[in-house]
Each structure stands twice: as C-alpha cells, then as structure tokens.
Amino acid sequence: MSRRPRLSVLLVAAATLTALFAPSAAAHTAPAAPRTAVLDGTRLQQTKLRLDRGDPQLRRALRQLTARADNWLDQGPWTVVDKPKPAPGGDVHEYLSQAPYWWPTTTPTADNPWGCPYVQRDGQRNPEVDTGTDRQDVEKVFDSTYDLALAWYYTSDRRYAHKADQVLRTWFLDPATRMNPNLDHAQFIPCKYDGRAIGIIDFSQSYTSVVDAVAILGTGAPAWTSNDRRAMAGWNADFLGWLRNSAFGKEEGAAANNHGTFYDMELAALAYATGDTALARRTVLDARAKRIDPQIAGDGSQPQELARTRSWHYSTFDLVAYTRLAAIGRHVGVNLWTYQGPDGQGLLKAVDYLLPAATGAAAWPHPELEFYRYAASDVVHAAADAGDPRAKAAVPKLEAPPGGDLWALRPAAEQLDSIAG
After folding, report:
1. CA–CA distance, 235 with 339 (Å, rounded to integer)
2. Secondary structure (H, E, C), 121-163
3. What is the pLDDT of residues 112-144, one digit of tens each?
4. Taking the C-alpha atoms of 151, 155, 156 and 160 in order, what is their torsion angle to the nearest 10 degrees?
5. 116 class by beta-carbon count within 10 Å (0-12 exposed, 13-18 middle, 19+ buried)
6. pLDDT digits over 242-252, tens only?
7. Taking Cα atoms as reference points, which of 128, 253, 243, 138 lies closest to residue 184?
8. Which DSSP letter does residue 170 get?
C-alpha cells in the first residue's frame, strides 16, 4: 500500500510550480510611493506598475529617460570647492555665481582685471558667467540627480542610485566638499555687488528637482542610507531657515515677478519636505492674492514678463513656478488651479494665453530674442492634467523638447529652454 505524500511536500511542490509558471510576483508588487513635494508620488507608483506590465508608450519614454541617466554615469561629481577663485570672503564652501546679463565696458587690464564698470544688457547672456563660478556645475547636480533618481525608481538599476548618491553626497554632505546652505554670493556683479537677492533664482528655478530626487531615493535606493537622509534633511532645514530669515531671502520674497513666484515655490517645497506642512499650505494659499492677482492680467497675460526682451521665455518660465506651486498645493489641500482673481485671472487663463503660439497656430506677438515653441510644452501638459479642455486639445499639437517629451514619467513642469537669470 502506497504512502500518501506529506502535506509539507505538496505545499513545496505547489510553490515550485507557481514560481516556474506564474508571472513574477516582483513585477506586480506595488513599489513605494515617494513623498515627493512637486511630483505626485502616487502617480509615479502607478506609472512604475504600468511599466512593469510592459506599457509600450511608457517604455518608449523610459528609453529617453535612461538615455539621459546613462549620460550622467561617467560625469561628475561636482563640488563648490573646485572653482578657480573662492567667493568674496575666501570660503571655498560658499556658492558663487555671476549675474548673467551684465557685461564689462572696457578691456581688462592689470589694474582693472574685470573690465569694470559692468552694464546690464537684458536677455543677452555674458559667456564669462559660465566659467569660473559654480553656476554650471550646480545645474548639473540638479539635472543629474533628478534623471538618475527617476531612472532608478523605474528600472531598479543600482548604477543610477549609486551615481545619484555620489553626486548628492559630494555637493551637499561631505565635509570636505559640501556647499554651505546659503546663497550669499549668488549672481555677484564684479566691482559692484558681492552677491544679490536676485541670485536666489539660481536655486529656486530647479532645486525642487533635488528635493524630489531625495524623496524618490528614500523609498529604498541602495547606498542612500538613513544617515544620508538625515544629513540631507538637515541641509534642507538650514537652507529653508536662510531663505526665510536672511535679508536676501526677504527681498526675493517681495519680488513682483517670476523671482517672487519661484521663491514661494521653493519655500513651499522645502517646507513640505522638512515636515512643516502648515508653512507649505500657507505659502500656497497666500500666492493667490500675493502672486496671481497682481502678476496675471484678466486676459491671462503676465505684464511683468511681457516687458522683458525674452517675453516668451519668461512667460513660460513664470508658469513653471506657478504649476509646480499648484502641484505642491495638491499635497496640502489647496487647489490653486481653480482660483480666480477679481479680474478673472488665474493659472488656467495664463496657460490658455500661450496656446496659439505653443501649438504653432499663431506667432507670439511680443518681443522675444530667441523663440522656442517647445518651452511651453510642460506647462500646457500641467494645465491639461488639471482639467483645462483647451490645454487637453492642444497637447497633440505641442512641440517635443530636445531629448523627447518625458511628461508621462515626470509630470512636473521643467524649464525646457535653457536660459538663466
């Protein structure tokens, strides 16, 4: 008489067959949703699951994202201590950048090595600002950590996480190479100012990408340790304190154009990331009367930005800040998209104002030294996601930026035409 197999043996056999013939359980396990400030962490989580299931449209976008991430693997890391001359005061850990639209008036000499005095040429970028300071390197820090963190999240490729960790540690955490958490010497003008409040835009226009990259890595990236998370949170808290309390921070917060909008967006993102949700919520709420009412006209135009020689760039640029601020508002219970000011002004109307030029249906009717239609693509995507029917209809007509349209993988507006100031 044969013996009946033991239950434990049957269970092991069943588990083996399941492992051999069933779809991989790992492929369908929901990844953690990062607590991102601008990006929607739940949406990233859902996108990751769609990628794991082989969504062909997302796979194409992922190839474009990983191509960007691959490009960073053999670059950097970068550090503020590398520049040929320290910032005024001599501390090599101080961030230094030069005002982009200021130019020398004389040929440099031994007695006047800068060619002073400097004069302003709005919208015309002085090429010397890209050498000898930290401006170009910090943009690489921002862009690389964002691309690398997203690429790691969607692919689980450890190379991306390790490179992002190296870049962040070198710029922000390593005592030998870290940046001091202030912008006291941003956008200095030779022979005129050692630093300016306006220089905060160097960080406010892109630093939220780092804030979100850190949150993404915090979902379990290899090499990004609990000590790294604590140290980065400390740096962000110190930087937030400087933004709120320094004379430069207060001056930038009072600006009545894109500088003020970006300041609020950065303040709200850092507040949310460091746990001060009350400050984040208050900042988004205050932006209604403080920013939208005076900065956006009833027809959706932005008068302060239209006054610039780069009116298209600055109109789209300011809306990058607004749409990211609206994204932060989503986390703290404020719908900035539905707000309308006393003249009917609002974010949806401001995006709609751009649509004829963004879709190629009409020429941009204001001054612009160098028009790039794709500069508006992300802010139109943001408005479409917020429910604007005109923006939704415009999405298929948008011009993709260089490197492809990555909105599906990182649905938060970026500055797509590269210009600083």
Report:
1. 34
2. CCCCCCHHHHCCCCHHHHHHHHHHHHHHHHHHHHHCCHHHHHH
3. 888 899 999 988 888 888 888 999 999 999 999
4. -30
5. middle
6. 999 999 999 99
7. 243
8. I
Model pTM score: 0.89
Q: What is the DSSP letter of 39?
A: S
The contacts of residue 49 (CB under 8 Å, 6+ apart) are: 28, 30, 31
Q: What b-and-e string marks burial along 241-266, b requiring 16 or more CB atoms within 10 Å of the CB?
A: ebbeebebbeebbebebbbbbbbbbb
- Structure-token pair, residue 24: 């991989």
DSSP structure string for 227-260? HHHHHHHHHHHHHHHHHHHSHHHHHHHT-SSHHH
- Give the distance between the most distant pair of CA atoms in the chain: 108
Q: How many angstroms separate the CA atoms of 218 and 287, rounded? A: 30
3-state SS class at 78? coil
Question: How many percent of the chain have pLDDT more than 70?
Answer: 92
34 near 216, Cβ under 8 Å? yes
- Say how far apart CA 37 and CA 399 lie, in whole Å: 27
Token pair for 303: 């008068």
Beta strands 118-120 and 102-104: pairing type? antiparallel
∠ CA 209-212-217, nearest 5°, is 120
Region of 73 (left: φ > 0; alpha: ψ -120 to 50; beta: rest) is alpha
Cα distances (Å, whole numbers) of residue 18 to 7, 9, 12, 26, 386? 16, 14, 10, 13, 43
